TrEMBL record:
GO BP: DNA replication; DNA synthesis involved in DNA repair; double-strand break repair; SOS response
InterPro entries xrefs: DNA-binding_RecF (IPR001238), DNA-binding_RecF_CS (IPR018078), P-loop_NTPase (IPR027417), RecF/RecN/SMC_N (IPR003395), RecF_2 (IPR042174)
Organism: Enterococcus malodoratus ATCC 43197
Role this protein plays: The RecF protein is involved in DNA metabolism; it is required for DNA replication and normal SOS inducibility. RecF binds preferentially to single-stranded, linear DNA. It also seems to bind ATP.
Identification of the protein by name: DNA replication and repair protein RecF
Taxon lineage: Bacteria, Bacillati, Bacillota, Bacilli, Lactobacillales
SUPFAM superfamilies documented for this protein: P-loop containing nucleoside triphosphate hydrolases (SSF52540)
Classification via Gene3D superfamilies: P-loop containing nucleotide triphosphate hydrolases, RecF/RecN/SMC, N-terminal domain
Record NCBIfam families: recf
Similarity comment: Belongs to the RecF family.
Domain of life: Bacteria
Entry-linked Pfam families: SMC_N
Keyword terms of this UniProt record: ATP-binding, Cytoplasm, DNA damage, DNA repair, DNA replication, DNA-binding, Nucleotide-binding, SOS response
Occurrences of domain RecF/RecN/SMC N-terminal (ranges): 3-364
Length: 373
């Protein structure tokens, strides 16, 4: 998979921009607050229709503009695709080869990207919400149907919580509707859980292989899915029955509290290095190595699942890693994936790669391209 051309119109500080990327390694070089991260973000938004930096689409639209537009031309397998995303105050429209896509699941997955930013180092030591979002975004690219099941689960959860609250406040007395919502929650929740379990197992396989290499075979990495219900199987029907039974057991307590206590929205990931919880007891170096291993593992995982390598976006992470981790990162991606990297200096990549990058100098939203010798 490869992004050959990027067009931005009224996107953040870029009013009208066209960039071409003939090479595999592309570096956006410049001082801070010049627009480097905006470029990386636009590629991410083109792929996933949403930003990793803000939940407000209005922030992506130029200050005095009514809309923003992102276009990309990608090579995927033997075919070339034109992707387009239009962001307005009323919402967003996505197109593939100029044909509007009504369903999100039809669009996401056409361009697969992996983003690694400094905040991703908090994947290990951050909140469970960060890790759940990580699973949802990455799994959603591999399996767009997962996004549909997740959206249905979240919608049902919202309805169920509202009805539980009404029951707790005695505004409702009929529990039959709660039975219906509980059945639906278990139906969609079991699909979400089954896909997450399979994803985490594959992620652990690829992550541990990388983790061993980075630590010179000294450390073993395990990733465990910590569910809020007891799981003994990856079978959807088995999970559905267990989930339903657990919801029924907790019905009185949930009605009293007016909230749903169990389900994928309460789950977490546990990272263990040499059988020790790295979130709680690991050093900062171990936590960073774990985060790096997990993020880089997605490259091979996506290749295994989709048949193609994704595009890698590295947002100023080189300065956050020591020399050993920098070298392993660059060795992992070299000659494998198209990479877009933002940095304030070239010292992190000079002499460490055989690939000659294209350098895009970024200054106050203006771009000047040059190719290294």
């Amino acid at each position: 998979m490869r992004l050959n051309r990027l067009e931005l119109r009224n996107y953040r500080n870029y009013q009208d921009l066209i960039l071409k990327f003939p090479n595999r390694l592309n570096i956006f070089l410049g001082e801070n607050a010049q627009g480097k991260t905006n470029l990386l973000e636009s590629i991410y938004v083109l792929a996933l229709t949403r930003s990793h930096r803000t939940s407000s689409e209005q922030e992506l639209i130029g200050w005095q503009d009514d809309f923003a537009q992102i276009k990309g031309r990608i090579d995927r397998g033997t075919s070339e695709l034109e992707l387009e995303l239009l962001l307005t105050k009323k919402g967003r429209k996505s197109k593939i080869n100029h044909i509007e896509q009504k369903k999100l699941s039809s669009y996401i997955g056409q361009l697969n990207v992996i983003l690694f930013a400094p905040e991703d180092l908090s994947l290990v030591k951050g909140s469970p919400q960060i890790r759940r979002r990580f699973i949802d975004m990455e799994l959603g690219q591999i399996n767009p149907v997962y996004l549909y099941d997740l959206a249905q689960y979240q919608q049902t959860l919202k309805q169920r919580n509202l009805y539980l609250k009404q029951l707790s406040e005695k505004k409702q007395t009929d529990e039959i509707y709660l039975d219906i919502l509980t059945e639906q929650l278990a139906d969609f929740g079991s699909k979400v859980l089954a896909n997450r379990l399979k994803f985490v197992k594959k992620l652990e396989f690829w992550s541990n292989d990388l983790h061993r290499k980075i630590t010179n075979q000294k450390e073993e990495l395990e990733i465990k899915y910590e569910a809020s219900i007891p799981l003994e199987s990856e079978d959807i029907e088995d999970i559905r029955i267990i989930f339903l039974n657990e919801l029924k057991k907790n019905r009185k307590r949930e009605i009293f509290k007016g909230n749903t206590f169990l389900g994928p929205h309460r789950d977490d990931l546990i990272f263990q290095v040499n059988q020790q919880n790295v979130q709680t007891y690991g050093s900062q170096g171990q936590q960073r190595t774990t985060a790096l291993s997990v993020k880089l593992a997605e490259i091979d995982l996506m290749k295994e699942e989709t048949g193609e390598y994704p595009i890698l976006l590295l947002d100023d992470v080189m300065s956050e890693l020591d020399d050993n981790r920098q070298i392993h990162l660059l060795e992992t991606i070299e000659n494998k994936v198209q990479t877009f990297l933002t940095t304030t200096t070239l010292n992190h990549v000079k002499g460490k790669m055989t690939v000659h990058p294209d350098i895009f100098y970024v200054h106050q939203g203006q771009i000047e391209r040059t190719e290294t010798e």
